[in-house]
Amino acid sequence: MSRILVVEDEAHIADGLRFNLEAEGHSVAVVDNGEDALRQLHKPESDFEVLVLDVMLPGKDGFTVARELREAKNYIPLLMLTARSRPEDVLKGFEAGADDYLPKPFDLGILIARIASLLRRKNWLHSAASSQPESAAAAVPAEAAELFRFDGKEVDFEKLQLRTATQIFQLTLMELELLRYLIRNSGRPVSRKAILENVWNLHEDTDTRAIDNFIVRLRRYIEDEPAKPKHLLTVRGLGYQFVAEPATS
N or C terminus: which one in the chain shows less Cβ crowding within 10 Å? Predict the structure, then answer.
């Protein structure tokens, strides 16, 4: 049985979610505003495993709640519900720290499937990280071990971490998936449109630059001088390119 926190101020939607999620075997708590959600999640004894978070809330909206959670290093799997499904709004949710989103009105079966997917990924990450010794991870190929090393840094796709010689950065799922995509295309420029389609599954023809904010954050983790990047390069007029081993001048 998984513990789920639903943050929804429309009572009929909240009641429907509680009823159907409990019918699936989950334990569900419901609050109707962002402040109460943060209080619940900041408790030391909090044991919620998934957060279902509406965007339009009284007081602090869903974007603010997600952002404050991530800033507090709370990486609970987060499914965001939004009545606004424009690509710009979806990306704003991902920037705030959401792991998935559903536009309203949503199909109940799809919501239950998305929650199940977040739980599976969380459980898989936990079991993989706890069952594999560090020495074993270093002994197998990087792709199999879900590790990627470059320039004295290490991306751990199992633990959602980027490690340098002096720091460990915990990544959100969306930051990690963007970095994974760039690494897989290492040495090749990729367009913003390709990133939108292949990382966020957004196929609308949109001129959004919201993705640039993700690159700015990744550069803070990866680059020695974020203002003078050598790994995450801007390709003018197109997008970005990841370079694992930049040429030395």
Answer: C
